[in-house]
Predict the structure of CopG family transcriptional regulator.
Amino acid sequence: MAEVTKRQFNVYLPNDLIKRVKHASVDADESLSSFVERVLEEYLLRTSEERER
């Protein structure tokens, strides 16, 4: 399997949201980067499917 090149992507979020996302990644037993990547991919897939209906 080919490795995907990744880049740093900085965003500014409210402190409370950052705290909740960090806790959610720990609860999911994933790194913060992996968790955010997965959640964003799931969201984009879901919204894309909804638009196609």
User: Anything to note?
Assistant: The radius of gyration is 13 Å.
